[in-house]
Amino acid sequence: YVPPQVRKAQETLDDKKREELGRLKKVVNGLINRLSEPNLSSISGQLEELYMANSRKDMNETLTDILMNACVTAVAMPARLMMEHVLLVSILHHTVGIEVGAHFLEAVVKKFDELCRSDAEGKECENLLALIAHLYNFHVVHSLLIFDILKKLVSTFTEKDIELILFLLKNVGFSLRKDDALALKDLISEAQSKANTAEKKLKDQTRVRFMLETMLALRNNDMRKIPGYDPEPVEKLRKLQRTLVHSSSSGKETQLRVSLESLLNADRVGRWWIIGSSWSGAPMIDNTNSKTQQKMHIGKVSSKILELARKQRMNTDIRRSIFCVLMTSEDFLDAFEKLL
């Protein structure tokens, strides 16, 4: 039971909060609407100030909602506009904190997964994929995620997937080759074998052939073979990013090395890639099995060693068992076997 006066106080609090959020949304929306390359530094500065004045959670949610509404439309978004929006996220990711990029990335990936499953007619999937590609271009996310998405698309291999693979490779193919040539080579061979088996089913074989040609051009580092490939706009904006992010952390250190599976299961297994993110859920690892093994190890060692372990402040079962293994092993091979 909630007494009437407390209820009233809660309602006024909720109204106040709603009003504040509405005001914040208006301010952020105004800034995003004016976003362009020349005023990027002033807008990112104003958004930074808003991050200092408001709660991070409110700011992250507001910014993500507004950017998603602006970029995820049923028609294809102009590439330049998309890049500028993602560059803004990348600057805030480096100057405010990695939770900005992480929150945006998670929302984009979840929406992409949802739309891929629902076979949406519009260009929303391409727009979301472009957002992910540019998040990689501007060093917010690691190539691991891009390879995960490509593997997923290659494994399903429908007409729509082939289109998305081509779109992604055109945007970030050469960067992927630079980052991890071996993984790209594996992906290409997987796609080739998939194309050989699926060719009869796919009516539009020219598209498959075109995808394989693009992949071969990537493998041979031949940019001329990819029609419409122009790395200049991304390079230009990367230069701008380097001038706006003065700290040394503008490079690879702030990249989120997170897999597709981790992002999609974030609610279930926690967000390990965000420092200090709170999580209340079921334990990620089932401890029942490991506990019995630890007890078994400790049962074999003498009380003298256990006493030593206590003196050395080995306060958990696993620390004690590691200590006991190290102290009682005959040589390094024996210790290695026991530790395993």
UniProtKB/TrEMBL annotation:
GO BP term (any one): ribosomal small subunit biogenesis
Nucleus listed as a keyword: yes
GO MF annotations, alphabetized: RNA binding
Subcellular location: Nucleus, Nucleolus
Record keywords, A-Z: Coiled coil, Nucleus
GO cellular component: nucleolus
Lineage top rank: taxon: Eukaryota
Ranges for domain MIF4G: 25-222
Coiled-coil portions: 181-208
Gene3D superfamilies listed in its UniProt record: 1.25.40.180
Keyword Lipid metabolism: no
Function: Plays a role in targeting PPP1CA to the nucleolus.
Binding partners and assembly: May interact with EIF4A1, EIF4A2 and EIF4A3. Interacts with PPP1CA and PPP1CC.
Family to which the UniProt record says this protein belongs: Belongs to the CWC22 family.
Protein name: Nucleolar MIF4G domain-containing protein 1
Organism field: Anseranas semipalmata
Lineage: Eukaryota, Metazoa, Chordata, Craniata, Vertebrata
Name of the gene: Nom1
